[in-house]
Structures are given as structure tokens and as C-alpha cells.
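Sequence, C-alpha cells quoted for completeness.
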Amino acid sequence: MGRLSWPSEAELDDVKKMVANVSGRGVEEVKVVVSPYRICPLGAHIDHQGGAVSAMTINKGILLGFVASESQQVLLRSGQFQGEVRFRIDEIQHPRPVNCKNGEDHTSNGTTIHEECQWGNYARGASYALQRAGNLLKQGIVGYICGSEGLDSSGLSSSAAVGIAYLLAFECANNLKVSPTENIELDRLIENEYLGLKNGILDPSAILLSRYGCLTYMNCKTKEHKLVKSPKLQENQSKEEHREYKILLAFSGLKQALTSNPGYNRRVSECQEAAKALLSASGNNLMEPVLCNVEPEAYEAHKDKLETNLARRAEHYFSENVRVTKGLEAWSSGKVEEFGKLISASGLSSIQNYECGCEPLIQLYEVLLKTPGVFGARFSGAGFRGCCLAFVDANHAAEAASFVKDEYQKLQPKLANQLNQETAVLICEAGDCAHVI
């Protein structure tokens, strides 16, 4: 179950042997960072506005084996990408906003990497973030990084998983004591400052704070978080009402890089414009223009003054916050079906109000809604590429996976044929937080 199923001993051994071969050191000296992928059942697209979010990790992700290099040299190899990365850990790193071309992604497993989009940027970004926070780095690493085999990680925040993996490795090699909340901020520096992506702190928070068997709740304005235990059969609850679940990931075959699509950053800006207009209308012009600074009463009083696009973005933000609150209540009460309905409503708002997604992802979402045994579904990530997630009755997971694969093949045969058929629809379990073995 969960944390025990990934990584396997065989996976750990393979990574350790790769590092030992490259470094000339013993296998017993190799440490491994386990950095899982994450899903966000509720709280879509509102973390950058200080909203409330929920998340959990899954039993798939990034493994980074490493040994301290006993010098300032960093040497890295990848299981997905060719070549090697070399730099000195004490080099001064400067921001280099990513501008991948042709929809190619430098963080998702199985995609082709563009020459301008070096896969080592996240390692350099981790060095940048640690330097930016005032840490003195003297010890490099020799490392080997890989993702779960055969899995397209688009929409599962592979970028945050990679960034966190490098942070933990550099910290371990340099004997730095850094808390999870500090590492959340460091990963934000990698993504926002070093690479120029305007995302929030949901992804690193999920990866660093989650615990096996729990749903992680975080208030992105106050940074407060709590872990809500997985649903148990309640005293006054029937077995029909309480259902055991699995996590279903259905992949679209789209691998366009999020950083190359202006849609994501544009929507963030529109949320800020909506906040500015609402704050001005309510006499709070001096407050930072993010939607968490707008009181729900002020939104209701002044929402009719917003332009159409801005009104939709604000509606998504405020309705999604409500869904997160209701979702936590349903989860803690063991009402997985109710929790699933809220996930589906989140997916619909992402399409209609946040206006993200594209035809293949929307079709995949709609297929999941009619799949036998599925409690609820939505995009995983921004909906411009990658996959959809669903919570499904554990007893019908295999049947559901087969149904989704067949139906999506009919709708998008070209994209479906590009997928690894063994992992096109994946049945997963909850995972644990990022850690060093």
C-alpha cells in the first residue's frame, strides 16, 4: 500500500548502482531522494491568489540518487534525457526564464527535450534558490535522476518534484537543516524567479507536507496547513455510503510545456485584475491585488461590475474555495461519493469559469464522468496538457481503467496511440512526502 509500494527495493537498487558506477563509490554510500508526484482533488488554480487548496501525493514520482562529490563539482545524469549536466555548486546562478519551443517539455518523462530547454535547469535553479536564501554551498554531488518508468508526468507537478529532489540532495550534501516550509519557499524561487513561471505554492506544499493516508489542506494566504486523515467507516454510516477508493490517472497524450503556453500566466494576471477592480470598488485600493484579499461579501456586492472574463475568473476562485471547505467535511466524514461530486464540479468550473483545458482534456474529463465506478474527476494541472484524475471505487478500478482507455481511443485515436498502453490509464494509491533514504 501507498508508501510501501514505491519505490520498490529493485528501483532503489538500480538508482544506487547507477550512481556508484558514475562516481566510483560504493553502493552503500549512495543516498536516494524520493520525491513523489502530486494531485490536487480540490483547490484548482487558486493557490496563486491565496486560496484554500487540498492535495495529496501518489505512489509514483522522482528518484534522485546521489553521493557528495567531495568537491564543488556537480555531475548529473538522467534516466529520461541524454547527456550530462556539470556545474560548480558555488557558481553564481542567474535567472533564466524557460521558453521551450514546439511544445517540448524538459520535466515530463518520455518527451523530447529542446536544445534551449536544458534538463539541468532545475538543478541550477535549486542552487540559485539556496544561494538566494543566504546558504553557503561548498559540496557538490554526483547524481542520477529518473522518473517512474513509462509514465508521462504532465499534470502531476513533475517540475516541483524535480526541484525539491535537487534541494533535498544539495541540503543533505552540505549538512543544511531546512524545514519543509522553508523548502516550499525555495521551490517557489526556482519556479517563479529562476524559470519565470507564475505559479503558487500548492505543488511544493503537497510534495513536502503530505503524509500517507491523509488529505493535505493548505491556506495559501496564511501558509497554515493541516492533515486530514483518510475516510474511515463512521459509526452511523452504512458500508454502501462508505467506499474504498483508488486514484485513476488518465493521460491525454498532449505534452506541451506549461511554460511555453501563455494561457497559464495570462489567467493569473486576469485574477489579479479582477482582485484590483473588486478592491477598488470596495474602497481597499491599497491592498495587494490578489483575490484572497477580497471579502466574499465584497465580491457578491461588486461582481456585476467586472468584465466578462474577469467575472469568470473571480467566480471560479470564490466557488472553488467553497468546494474545498465542503470537500474537507466530506473527506473527514468518509463520504467519498460526495467528495467526488465536488471534484467534478471543480472540473466543470475550470472549463467554464477559469476557461482552461483543451479539446482532448475536456473529452477525457467527460469520459471519466460517465465511467462506471468513478466518484468524480477533473484536470490534473492546468488542463493544457497531461492528464485527468479521478477517484474511483476500488472494486471497479480495473473495469474503469479499461472503459476510459477504450472510449478515449475512439475520440482521439492519434493521441491515444502515442501513449504507452500499459500506463495510458494508471491505477494509483496515495503516497507520502518527499524524503531522503
About this structure: Confidence is low (pLDDT under 50) at residues 100-117. The domain at 240-429 is CATH 3.30.70.890 (Alpha-Beta Plaits).
